[in-house]
Amino acid sequence: MSEGAPTSREDAARLDSADPFRGFRSQFDLAPGLIYLDGNSLGPPPKAALARLQQTAAQEWGRDLIRSWNSAGWFDLPKTCGAKIARLIGAADDDVIVADSVSVNIFKLVSALLMDRRGAVAVFENEFPTDGYILQGLSNLTGSPLHVLKAGDDPFTENVSVLVVSAVDYKTAAIADIAAWEKRAALHDASIVWDLSHATGVLPINLARDGADYAVGCGYKYLNGGPGAPAFLYVRSDAGAVRQPLSGWMGHADPFAFGKDYEPAKDARRFACGTPPILSMSALDAALDIFGSVDMRAVAKKARSLGDLFLTLALAAGFTTVSPKPGEPRGGHVSLEFNHGYEFVQALIARGVIGDFRAPNLMRFGFSPLFLSYTDVWDAADALIDILHTEGWRAPEFSRRDKVT
Fold first, then answer.
1. Which domain does 339 fall in, by range?
2. pTM of the predicted model, to two decimals?
3. Mind listing the pLDDT tens digit for each residue in 69-91?
């Protein structure tokens, strides 16, 4: 364990008393006693987001009706939310738009890039599945070859025009060096579309500094925007006039002129398409306000400290991990290997410790710094180790498989 790390629950409590984020948990609607280690998959609801949902539904929609497109700022929400996310990813306000889902946004960006160049698209075989699925469909649609790469493969050796890659691996939490990847891509006249889904809200990101031109990310993990919260899309303003393939009216330079021909907006707004989902976007907008005064470097530091504590205790108990070891750079989650991982996670959930399972054998635990304490993590590791020693995961009720793992 790294120097200064807790070696007892009392040590963990002392760290909590000095934690700059110790007051943030009260901003979330979390049940007392629950240890929620799945914010990397679905963030818990901020109280402000729930209040905003109520206001948007009951007052803005229920009373003001269509007037709220103007009076409540509905029309500008995709850009308003985009500007808040821009500050978390090191982008200009006008370079980020909130719209659609990660899958749709990958389709928009990659197909837009393929409209103006020839060549293959590439993705690593261990990438989050939707990224690969979308590229399979685009390859079938456009005829562009698809290269599925193994870990360690050089993606820029086979006429690759576009690579889709995650900034943080969804299984291991390994962090990609964005600047280094972008330098290599530039040497081969290739573009990278970054998937920031497991990075935004837990790591300090600076896309403009690192030379990134294109990125997508979701709003419901560390950003706590709610289940199915809309995603975001980033296009750097000086990356060139990338054309929007889904040229819907919300991406038009002047949607309410109702012109017959499509004229794209000048900034990232051109990557909007249809009418934004106002209820979910309002919740995301309120949730993002939590990050207004937060130092993302401090967030990342605490996330790694929490993960280090959990990993150190788990490894000492005999677990193995695919994640970077304690003290090494890592995203906000860790994954432990266990052949009956699904059953083990269910046993933890029954004890009030919520993580998730990723096939074939990974138990995944997220460490969202704004609502988790060091004592939470200590207690979660205690439960983990007890279930291992007592083989509590073998109880028959934990083997029943649900659709979502």
1. 9-47+295-399
2. 0.96
3. 999 999 999 999 999 999 999 99
